[in-house]
């Protein structure tokens, strides 16, 4: 299982939100590139970036910060937030992003997801963000009636590289991940599933690792707060 340290970008800074609420942003650093380098130097295999402003705006907003991170590290980076057109997908991939994460557009325009996955094999993932099992879109501000498993089933044969599953009510809350929901999703689809939201201690990582079928885990606040030691977490993620 791969551990993805999260760098959430708001107004060019590294922040963490509570349950996706932009008004709860806590700033953890003003130099995202330096933060990325520290994660890479610690032995991380991937980075998970989110353009929070972009998720609400529907287009890239923190491009300068993302480009600075890409220039600072050599490990692969996956990026989500405001990526809703083929042009934007192609732009980020051409700049060195290894994998883009499509969220809102996966619900509103699944044909675009299929087209992008066909054009860029292995480079397109889908973000399934949910409250009470129902998918939320547009920066988590809008709730749909579609279940996570229904959307995953719709995209089963789309050729996507991964599903990033976030339990919004766990995100940034330090209450532990929703292991059962993540495991159930992983068992329901052949697409690799990456867990996100709530990871706060080593036992959370072990529980996800031991659930079988979960390909990765994202952690943010726990790493910044010091509740989770990065090197120990990297070791725990490996079987």
Description:
This protein is an alpha/beta fold and 239 residues long. It has a single domain, classed as TIM Barrel, CATH 3.20.20. Helix content is 38%, strand content 30%. The protein contains eleven helices and twelve strands. It has helices at residues 32-41, 52-57, 63-72, 86-95, 104-108, 110-119, 148-154, 179-188, 202-210, 221-225, 230-237, and strands at 2-10, 13-18, 21-29, 47-51, 77-80, 99-102, 124-131, 134-137, 142-147, 162-167, 193-196, 214-219. The chain has an eight-stranded parallel beta barrel with strand order 1-4-5-6-7-10-11-12, surrounded by eight helices. Helix 8 (179-188) links the parallel strand 10 and strand 11 (193-196). Helix 1 (32-41) packs parallel to helix 3 and helix 9 packs parallel to helix 11. The longest helix has 10 residues, at 32-41. The protein starts with a strand and ends with a helix. The model has no long low-confidence stretch (mean pLDDT 89).
CATH class: Alpha Beta
H/I helix tally: 11
Tell me, briefly, the overall form: globular
> How much helical structure, as a percent, in the residues?
25-40%
Please name the fourth-level CATH homologous superfamily.
Answer: Aldolase class I
* Structural category: alpha/beta
Mean pLDDT, to the nearest integer, reads: 89
Write the layout of secondary structure elements.
Layout: E1 2-10, E2 13-18, E3 21-29, H1 32-41, E4 47-51, H2 52-57, H3 63-72, E5 77-80, H4 86-95, E6 99-102, H5 104-108, H6 110-119, E7 124-131, E8 134-137, E9 142-147, H7 148-154, E10 162-167, H8 179-188, E11 193-196, H9 202-210, E12 214-219, H10 221-225, H11 230-237
Parallel strand pairs: 1-4, 1-12, 4-5, 5-6, 6-7, 7-10, 10-11, 11-12
Antiparallel strand pairs: 1-2, 2-3, 7-8, 8-9
Helix pairs in contact: 1-3, 9-11
